[in-house]
């Protein structure tokens, strides 16, 4: 392989690496923006709702069923009612995050 071909390959490799780094940085900034929006939206919920949502999703997958059953018992509601409350809260937070991200564009 001649020197020119080697130089061309090195230039292409450097360019590709630079593009990957730029994409990685953009993805990191995007995730950070999403996290900021999520935090703001969670803070906007009433404390009881925020804690309920965080507790609902906090457990290890193997323990979720037991934890959710305990949450429903503690709240004096059926598990289906708990799932419905979480569904509504999750949608409220999702809509808030989408609006927040749209504003940051």
CATH architectural group: Orthogonal Bundle
Distance between the termini: 47 Å
Low-confidence stretches: none
Main sheet? Answer: none
Helix content: over 70%
Write down the overall geometry: elongated
Helix and strand composition category? mainly alpha
Order of helices and strands: HHHH
Strand-residue proportion: under 5%
Number of strands: 0
Supply Rg.
23 Å
Supply the CATH class.
Mainly Alpha
Q: How confident is the prediction overall: mean pLDDT?
A: 85
Named CATH topology? Arc Repressor Mutant, subunit A
Tally of contiguous helical segments = 4
- Tally of domains: 1
Report on this model:
The chain has 4 helices and no strands. By secondary structure, the protein is mainly alpha-helical.
Give short descriptive properties of this protein.
Arc Repressor Mutant, subunit A; mainly alpha
Question: Outline of this structure?
Answer:
The chain has helices at residues 3-43, 47-58, 64-75, 79-103. The protein has 105 residues and is mainly alpha-helical.
Topology, element by element:
Blueprint lengths: L2 H41 L3 H12 L5 H12 L3 H25 L2
Helix pairs in contact: 1-4
